[in-house]
């Protein structure tokens, strides 16, 4: 302990370029350190104490990073809020997290103001990056305070809200250890060492740069970006992800590591060959992906293109998970890896009994020394646990040598004629059709069978969504899937409802078919 952590590295090398905003503006570590220090002094002046919380409704970039760095050295909880939410949804999180300060970027002013009003937040607790009606500019908040190192520093944490499948989102809250922030940050970097990450220049290493591709309100984005920063990597932010632009940024900043989702891979692979060959991506060492199982052929194409830098993991905001190195995946195509050294896995049946290898069941996990609670909801906390393991409702199986394979989410499983059908298996085949850009498969009501399989397809650019395409897709599936797994019907849409991190909002597609029914199967 004692070599990593942003605050230590910034004091050691204040001129290190620690972050680059989406518009190309570079920020030194010294500048970020000073901004974070001033924010701590200013908020303490308003009465914030250890274990208090702050919220941020801010786009990707250093404004949110400063909130993160301030909270994590002052012993506070920082909750980044999804900027796609409406005012009432934002207000719920601000109120539920008991935020003592709420920061809103002017880009999200309208819903941010509605959220603050919904939460009943006092005007003295509202702060703005830019101009937001009724909010005090951050520049005014910190105008009269020093940028020196705060006293009585201790580690804080992020408290992300899980999207969940039912009800209101819940904040995943972990106990604070009350230790030195840099020591805590160094412990955070332990996860990245599983992937072979090495320190960047301020810690005595070489050039390392992390590309932030997805919104900063997602747990994995914060975890991987924050941990990379604490290892001395430069954070390069993207505002809105586009396939070719990501290749341009990788080449320009010599990006060495990033966090992506399978949708990113699919979109990049659909670029014309001459476009893909225009950019040098040889600097990449760790292209880490998660969020959904990646179809085997798509990942194989990425490895053929980018080389042995494509790593995969499976995890949850609550903690625990698996990891698959590029070679391990090539040896076991389709796996999401084996358990982390500090994690354990358990696959159980509907009675909570452990199942044998290769038998699908509900996946439970735990991580050594890590306990959490869903803030304000002990019932949900207990419901999702089995002994000291927890689940997010995913279905999968383990092989004899401990490799985990995912089947689907329990809530997405289709029960048709008494048979369990996993949509992910069907989606992974349809997405391989060259005229398909994206696909979602789910169950809709069928009076005879209980459920029937529905597919909604986003055609590739320039492809007509007609009966001819439907027939092509069915012909494509003939040698790939048993007919019982085929969609009964295929609908088309201009764009599937996905979060920017790639997570498919399947409920938006599925729920209208079940409206007015007392059961969902």
UniProtKB/TrEMBL annotation:
A single GO BP term for this record reads: fatty acid metabolic process
Record carries keyword Ligase: yes
Source organism's superkingdom?
Bacteria
Record keywords: Ligase
Question: Which Pfam families does the record cross-reference, listed alphabetically?
Answer: AMP-binding (PF00501), AMP-binding_C (PF13193)
Q: Which residues form the AMP-binding enzyme C-terminal domain?
A: 425-503
The record's Gene3D superfamilies line, in alphabetical order, gives: 3.30.300.30, N-terminal domain of ligase-like
Domain annotation AMP-dependent synthetase/ligase: ranges = 6-370
**PROSITE patterns membership:** AMP_BINDING
Q: Which Gene Ontology terms cover its molecular function?
A: medium-chain fatty acid-CoA ligase activity
According to its UniProt record, which protein family does this protein belong to?
Answer: Belongs to the ATP-dependent AMP-binding enzyme family.
- How is this protein named in the record? Long-chain acyl-CoA synthetase
Q: What is the lineage of its organism?
A: Bacteria, Bacillati, Actinomycetota, Actinomycetes, Streptosporangiales
């Amino acid at each position: 302990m004692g070599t990593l952590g942003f605050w230590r590295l910034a004091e050691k090398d204040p001129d290190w370029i620690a972050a680059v905003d989406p518009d190309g503006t570079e920020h030194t570590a010294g500048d970020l350190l000073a901004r974070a220090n001033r924010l701590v002094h200013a908020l303490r002046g308003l009465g914030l104490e250890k274990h208090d919380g702050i919220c941020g409704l801010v786009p990707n970039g250093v404004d949110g990073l400063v909130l993160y760095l301030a909270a994590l050295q002052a012993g506070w909880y920082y909750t980044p809020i999804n900027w796609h939410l409406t005012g009432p949804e934002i207000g719920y999180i601000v109120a539920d997290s008991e935020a003592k300060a709420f920061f809103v970027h002017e880009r999200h002013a309208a819903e941010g103001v509605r959220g603050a009003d919904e939460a009943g937040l006092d005007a003295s607790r509202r702060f703005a990056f830019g101009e937001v009606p009724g909010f005090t500019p951050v520049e005014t908040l910190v105008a009269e305070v020093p940028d020196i190192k705060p006293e009585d520093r201790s580690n804080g944490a992020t408290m992300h809200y899980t999207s969940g499948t039912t009800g209101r989102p819940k904040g995943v809250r972990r106990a604070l250890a009350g230790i030195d922030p840099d020591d805590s940050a160094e412990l955070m970097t332990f996860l990245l060492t599983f992937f072979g990450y090495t320190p960047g220049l301020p810690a005595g290493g070489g050039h390392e740069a992390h590309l932030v591709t997805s919104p900063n309100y997602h747990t994995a984005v914060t975890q991987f970006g924050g941990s990379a920063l604490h290892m001395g990597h430069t954070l390069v932010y993207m505002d809105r992800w586009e396939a070719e632009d990501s290749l341009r940024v990788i080449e320009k900043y010599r990006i060495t590591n990033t966090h992506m989702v399978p949708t990113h891979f699919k979109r990049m692979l659909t670029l014309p060959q001459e476009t893909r060959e225009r950019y040098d991506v040889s600097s990449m060492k760790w292209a880490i992906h998660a969020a959904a199982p990646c179809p085997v052929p798509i990942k194989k194409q990425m490895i053929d293109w980018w080389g042995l830098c494509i790593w995969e993991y499976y995890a949850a905001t609550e903690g625990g998970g698996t990891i698959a190195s590029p070679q391990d995946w090539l040896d076991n195509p389709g796996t999401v890896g084996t358990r982390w050294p500090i994690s354990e896995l358990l696959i159980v049946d509907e009675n909570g009994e452990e199942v044998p290898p290769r038998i699908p069941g509900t996946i439970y996990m735990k991580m050594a020394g890590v306990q959490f609670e869903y803030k304000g909801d002990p019932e949900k906390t207990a419901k999702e646990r089995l002994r000291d393991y927890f689940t997010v409702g995913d279905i999968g199986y383990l092989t004899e040598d401990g490799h985990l394979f995912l089947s689907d989410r329990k809530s997405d499983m289709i029960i048709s004629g008494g048979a369990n059908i996993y949509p992910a298996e069907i989606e992974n085949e349809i997405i391989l059709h060259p005229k398909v850009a994206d696909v979602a498969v789910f169950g809709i009501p069928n009076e005879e069978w209980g459920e029937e399989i529905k597919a909604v397809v986003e055609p590739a650019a320039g492809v007509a969504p007609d009966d001819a395409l439907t027939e092509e897709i069915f012909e494509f599936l003939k040698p790939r899937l048993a007919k019982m797994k085929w969609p009964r019907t295929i609908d088309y849409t201009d764009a599937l409802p996905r979060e920017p991190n790639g997570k498919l909002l399947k409920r938006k597609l599925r729920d209208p078919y079940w409206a007015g029914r007392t059961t969902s199967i």
